[in-house]
Amino acid sequence: MSSPRRAFSAAFPSDCWYALARSGDVDQEPLGLRALGLPVVLFRAADGSAVALEDRCAHRAYPLSAGVVVDGGLRCGLCGFVYDADGQCVSVPTQPRVPFGAKVASYPVQERDGLVWVWLGEPGRARLARVPELPWLDDEAWAGVGGSSVVAAGYLLLHENFADVTQVPFVAPEIAPSVIAVAPPLDVVVTETTVTLRREFAPAPLPAWQADLLGAGDAAFETLQEGYFLSPAAWVDRWDVTGADGTTARLRFTHLVTPLDEGLSQLHWQVDRDFAVGDDGADDLMLEMFGDYYDRVLVAMETAQEVLDVDGPGPEVNVAADVAALKVREIVLAMLATESPAVITTRRARL
Amino acid sequence: MTGTKTTVREYEGDMLVEAADVVAEDVVALTLVDPDGDPLPAWTPGAHVDLIMEGGLVRQYSLCSSPGDSRTIRLGILRAPESRGGSAYVHEKLSVGSVVRVRGPRNHFPLVASPRYIFIGGGIGITPILPMVAEAEASGADWHLYYGGRARSSMGFVDELAQYGGKVTLVPQDEVGMLDLATVLGDPRDDTLVYVCGPEGLLSAVEAKCGADWPAGALHLERFAAKEIEAPAEGERSFELELAASGVTLTVPPDKSIFDVILDAGISVLGSCHEGICGTCEQIVLEGEVDHRDSVLSASERAANDAMMVCVSRCTSDRLVLDL
Q: What does the UniProt keyword field contain (chain B) (predicted)?
């Protein structure tokens, strides 16, 4: 049975830039993937620019990602049709004239901060929306570790998890600031399209892993924690610790979320730090620790999705700290409502 | 673990006036930037911000730049003849290099996707319409803008609208008279949305014209009557509360919340923050006019009047019926 609530959580905004791949993963070898329920192929054209096309040859049902990049575009591995960066077929092997209408969809692309952002919505509106600015992802002053997973959970469940800072100490007590016993006030700031949450922890010793990397021992640090819902495609956490001498060590947790299909999401995560840069041991430690953390989070999200799928949405008890997650839902619902009025469900229908 | 105190508020920040251009008689266009050059909050067509001026004066102005521009926002501000200080302050005190406090953006006038639009801008009401026509154009929709004003010299942004050629009809009143709404709107169509912003006379005329004939939901208009969530000056009033499922009728006195009245009657009701922010105590409304005071419901959800947060919201009618 499909309740309105379920319909809402499964629907995803199309008019949004999504980070479909890391720049390094897009090269002469075509990369096929699904996003927003569409087949997409990414490749790098001869001039070095990243291109996103519909991953299905106009001639017969065959993925273009099974083809090869040639001068002038991407050639189908089955029939040899060649498509340029605009998705226009420019040559076919069997006749001199390109058949009328031989064209596949081409999607606007922006490459920034080491990511390939693709616009799968109404193409004309792409220039009216912004790609989130995430400069630390591709900056030598920062060292990063990261990973990618496909999760059998809706993208909103992921955002709601990121919005709930109170979950971290329960999912991973060894990672969170050690001062959780006195949870500081949570300040939530909203705009039309974003949600920010912020809290400041009084000076306290760092978690063991971070104290080791900074050689800080038992010294007390102030911690500033901020989370940003930037768009349905990006959630960023900032975690800055400042010692008594005023020096600050910074961490950035970047979560790039893409709905792949109903109930299936892609998560690219990266943890960047501006300390212990160039320290391979630190990379290994952080990759292991945060890789394990995100594995645990994603398993929990898949379990939550399973409960929703099997038993349907039920009443939820929210606490005041959930306001950030509720604001995220509200923003996404407003995006869906402007894209497709039919999706508008009244508050009552969603209760 | 002690409880986490949560506060929720709208974004607020100082912005620098980068340009203040007179774009028509008594109309100034302010271009605002972040003082540190940081990106400004994202917004969509129809959004507005609060300008918080000296002495705590707060006024709402629509954004009339491109949502794709992360560095600047632009506001178009008419010096109102009957100004109570807001627009006079902007015109007299703000110039290049001034700093002004901005809150928001928020959007109670969103542009819903549609194959066809009729836009009507009256006077300074053109401002929210400017990014709307840009978006309609970008998405390949079929659209037309009727822009009415007292005189050509009083109508700002005409140069920018020239790029759309015949899709824009200028209607200066001293040359061609008032907008003829019968012609502008034409016959009702179910593939068309109507967006109008302007003086009250224009809004109510369009409402009257669309009301009976056009499909529900076709007309979108904006009044600058931002809802202040404050207790009424005349004090809180008492009202009758019927809980339909429980079959009881109670009285909510001025000094007690609906939530507490329900609880005191021994009826189970979920509640959590008691500040109107968590959404836990949401209840379905069957009858009665809700006075929404929460931070959970969106503008359209408030308007639907079918759900409410009983911890802080009240009722403006004499009787409220909940499905509880």
A: 2Fe-2S, Flavoprotein, Iron, Iron-sulfur, Metal-binding, Oxidoreductase
